[in-house]
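Fold this complex.
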Amino acid sequence: MSTPVAFFILRIASALTLLVLLGALFWVMWRDFATASEEVDANRRVHGRLVRLQEIDGRYVASPEAFPLLTLTSMGRGPTNVVPVEDTFASTDHALIALRGGRWWLEDRESTNGTSLNGIAIDQPIIVTDGDIISIGQSHYRLELE
Amino acid sequence: MSATSIPQSAEHNPLIPAQAERILLVVAGVFLTINTLALVLRGAAGRDWLPLLIWVICATAGHWWLNRRFPWRDPLLFPLAMFLGGWGIVIIERLAPLFAERQMIWLVVGVVALGIVTAVPQLLRLLRDYRYTLLLIGLALLLATIIFGTNPSGQASAPQLWLGFDTIFFQPSEVLKIILVVFLASYLAEQYPMLRALQTPTGRRNAGLSPRIIGPMLLMWGLSVVVLIWQRDLGTATLFFIVFLLLLYVASGFTWLLVGGALLIVAAGVVAYALFDVVQLRVDIWLNPWIDADNRAFQIVQSLFAFAQGSVFGQGIGGGSPGYIPVVHSDFVFAAIAEEWGLLGVIAMLTSIAVLVARGMRTAARLNRRAYLSLLAAGLSLLIGVQSLLITGGVLKLIPLTGVTLPFMSYGGSSLVANFIIVGLLLRLSTEDVDRGA
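Structure:
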């Protein structure tokens, strides 16, 4: 094999490796992007439900109204909340349920009339779990984790 | 692992940094092997397999160390640095075989420096705590260069930008640029609440003109001017000022900073054009190199010819004649790439640098709740990005030529080591938690 031919083949090989390198770069970045977007999706995932309770003959039973439980679930009278609370005692941004360090925390966002957990008013962020009743004014919600 | 086995869900098969890094390093290694083979087949004196061997050892050692130290690092930073550094060595071996041995030693030093930077525990906090000490060291270095500076070429007329010990020379501005970014990041992080509070909807915008912002901006501008006047180091002065301005912009978000800074640069440029021959020359040959193509504009004109010769796929390593460009192995290494690897090589190189910078900026964005780390990541990646833009733009005659090195690829030990230190710091930053205090 003559030398010019060898050089020509090496030139092609060199160009091809550059293309492969570019491809590998984009592949790694694509995979990284996919992993990152999975993480973001996990934050948006529905972790459970908040079921609104209604009073029938002095007993509270689940109403058909249910809201998704997100990593950050805001409650209040404002229309932008995940759980819009239609209650005259509710503040615009009333309370927040947040996943922090693997646990669910309920905190009051300095509302006018306060938030209750299982009938007791909370004065600091508190851990909530499956079946807990969260009350804002005359509205009651049952937490159902998945 | 082939591209066909990409799983649909990354959740069950997340990207392992070690794996991705290995793939990229192997491809880079294959590229370097092919080009070294072509170079050895050309059979000129002083060209052998030693640089490749050294590169493989460095890459393997660095890869092994990072796997142990930071299993969840950014997988792109180290392979890209090694790819560009290795390519640089091959080019220097081709262009100036006499310098290749030195550059090999500097590559080893650079990788060791990266190892040290990633090894020292709590390094980022230490840098922050001792920022004024660092700044003093930096200014002392600058002063020492102004007083004792020499030029390895020995010419009295050349800029005296090096500090020499016997036969070893190093360029303090390369260390200085890292020190300045570290200092500015910690300084601006300290001022961060102030800077950010200024642009609340209710706040008056003219509060942005407070001495807190204007002060350091003018100080930095003054420092750049000192570098320019006493050192005639156009490139470093421009680099310092642009990076500083962008960092201040990242920290504060004031658009007028960019406009004002650009005006300051233009003003400094106009004054420098009138006062300094070197600036006048650079601007003149940028506007029209063809008047004096055989003499003062010889370098830039030959560089343009090299680009034309390179075409799409290049002449192949050793096939072109980039030797016509004076000191091609230093600032004009980009032209040599264009001639021998063509447009494809240029795209590969620019993409690599762009990805490196983008990954750094991604780290900065990810850490946006920790002001110091975020600004540090942004500043370090901007250093590489702006420097690359200045020199590639200059070689292409898109902007006036400012003599800075092409990161990782130009001949020059200080530059190579400094860039490996930057990558080491970025690797550390990429493993920091998003939360956990400032």
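Chain A has two domains: 1-44, 48-145.
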